[in-house]
Amino acid sequence: FSPAHAQQKIASGDLPASSYSFGFREGMIGNVHFVTIPANANASAAAKVVANFLLSPDAQLRKADPAVWGDPSVLDPQKLPDGQRES
């Protein structure tokens, strides 16, 4: 499940147009994903590059596209530099 799941299922015709997602305003962790690098990883430097990419504005924007994944970004647009806020 993701917050965009209903929107994706409406678009595919699996749910009626009146369907919607619900989320609490406070008190929930939401839909979170974690990336971890084992302490004994053979390529920890490369794994850190991948983890940093996953948090990049470009990757987060692509992930937010309903045609790709549909999860909202974990980034706060107000904390991004001006050139990246527009995305």
TrEMBL record:
Region (Disordered): 67-87
Lineage: Bacteria, Pseudomonadati, Pseudomonadota, Gammaproteobacteria, Enterobacterales
Protein's name in the database: ABC transporter substrate-binding protein
Superkingdom of origin organism: Bacteria
